[in-house]
Task: inverse folding
C-alpha cells in the first residue's frame, strides 16, 4: 500500500513497483472512492493508492478512467491491464474475486435486496448535495434516513449485514462520516433527531469503532475543513498527506 | 404468462392464480421493463405480467414499487413475498437464481467489464431523452454510440457477449429498437452513419432475428405511434393489447 500527495495536471505518471498489485486511483475525501478503500482494507487486498487532484486532473487519468472520475481500479496483474470504474462495480468485483471476508450475501434474493437498499441510498446522497451546495432544508434528508432506520428495525440486527458490517454498511458509511459537514452548513437548522433515528444512531456509534472504518477515517473537523477549502475554490487535497 | 390492459388508478388488484410464480409489473413500451421481459423470456422463467398505466398509477403499485417505477418483480413464492426494483438488479437476480441460459459471464473481471459497459450506456439513454424531449441535435448520441462500435471491434464477436446475445446485448437492445423514434423526431437531421457504425448496424440486424428479441418486439411504426400519443398527453398504453 502506498499513498502520497494528490497528483495534478503536469504530474508524471507515478513510478510504482512492477508487482502486479492493483492500483486504486482515488481522492482522499471522496465518499465514492472511500467505498473502494473500505472494501480493499476489509478484504485485506494488497493495493497501491494514487491520489488525484480532481480540480486539475493529470493528463494520463483518462487512460484509467474514461470519464475522469474516481475511484478507478487499474488491474495491472491482469491481461491487457484493464481498469474498472464505478464504485459499486469495483466493490462487487473485489468481493467476487477475493474470498476473504465476503461482504455481499451469497443468496441471490438477499444480494438483490442489499443492492436495492444501496440504490435507494441515492436519496441520501442527492439530498446531501442539495444541502451542501444549495443550502437546502434538511427535511428530505431525514425522510431518506427513515428508510434506513426502518430497515435496521426490519432486519433486527446491529448492522445492516447482521452481526458485523458488510456491503450495505460500508457502501453507505462515507455519508454518515460526513454528517458533521451537514451540521456545519445547517448550523441552527441541523435537527438530527436521536429518537427518530435511534437505531441509526447506535449503528453510527458501532461503525466508528470498526477496524476498517478506522483504517480510512477522517475526523469531523477535517471533513469540515476540507469542505470549507473546496467551497472557497482552493480544495486542500493534501491536508492529511 | 399473462398480460392484458394497463391497469390505472381505481383498478382493483389483479386476481392471479396462487401459483407462486413471480409477477412482473411492467409497461409495454418501457425500455427498462423490456430488459426484465427479455431476461425472463431468454431464461424461460415462468411469470405473470401486470401492465401499469404510468400516467394514472393504481394506488396499490406502491406496495410493490416504493418509487412507483417499473419494472418491479414481485416474488410471491418467497418468504414475506418481497418485491425487487431497478431493472439491472432484477436482471442480475434472475441470472443468479435461474441457471438456464446464463447472461452474465462467471469470471469476476468479465462480469465487471460488462456491467461497466451497461453503465456507460447511460450516455445513450440520456441523449435519447435530450432528442425526444428537447429536440436536441444527435451528435452526442453518435459519440455515445462510438463506445459500443469500438467495443464490438475490441471483442471481435458478433454480439457483445460472444457468439450469442447475453447481458450487454439484452440490456442495451431496447434503445436500438427505438431508433426509429429518433429518426422520426429528427427528420432530415437524422444522420446515422452506416459506415461509422458498421459493426453496430450488423449487430442490430442480428438482434432483430433473435428469438427473445422477437418475443417482446414492437415495430418501428408502433414505437413512433406510442411516442406520438405520449407526447400529445394521451399515451396509448393499450395499443397492442
Result:
Amino acid at each position: 500500500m502506498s499513498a502520497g500527495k494528490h497528483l495534478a495536471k503536469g504530474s508524471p505518471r507515478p513510478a510504482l513497483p512492477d508487482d502486479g498489485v492493483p492500483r486504486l486511483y482515488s481522492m482522499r475525501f471522496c465518499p465514492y472512492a472511500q467505498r473502494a478503500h473500505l472494501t480493499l482494507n476489509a478484504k485485506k487486498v494488497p493495493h497501491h493508492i494514487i491520489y488525484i487532484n480532481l480540480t486539475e486532473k493529470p493528463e494520463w487519468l483518462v487512460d484509467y478512467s474514461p470519464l475522469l472520475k474516481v475511484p478507478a481500479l487499474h488491474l495491472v496483474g491482469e491481461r491487457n491491464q484493464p481498469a474498472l470504474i464505478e464504485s459499486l462495480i469495483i466493490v462487487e468485483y473485489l468481493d467476487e474475486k477475493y474470498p476473504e471476508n465476503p461482504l455481499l450475501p451469497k443468496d441471490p434474493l438477499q444480494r438483490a435486496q442489499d443492492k436495492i437498499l444501496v440504490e435507494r441510498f441515492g436519496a441520501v446522497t442527492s439530498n446531501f448535495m442539495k444541502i451542501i451546495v444549495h443550502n437546502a432544508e434538511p427535511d428530505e434528508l431525514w425522510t431518506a434516513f427513515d428508510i434506513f432506520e426502518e430497515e435496521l428495525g426490519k432486519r433486527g440486527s446491529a448492522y445492516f449485514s447482521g452481526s458485523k458490517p458488510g456491503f450495505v454498511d460500508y457502501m453507505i458509511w462515507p455519508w454518515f462520516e460526513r454528517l458533521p459537514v451537514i451540521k456545519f452548513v445547517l448550523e441552527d437548522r441541523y435537527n438530527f433527531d436521536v429518537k427518530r433515528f435511534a437505531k441509526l444512531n447506535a449503528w453510527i456509534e458501532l461503525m466508528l469503532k470498526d477496524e476498517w472504518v478506522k483504517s480510512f477515517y477522517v475526523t469531523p473537523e477535517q471533513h469540515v475543513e476540507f469542505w470549507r477549502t473546496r467551497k472557497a475554490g482552493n480544495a486542500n487535497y493534501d491536508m492529511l498527506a
The two ends of chain B are 14 Å apart (CA to CA). Residues 94 and 241 of chain B are 26 Å apart (CA to CA).
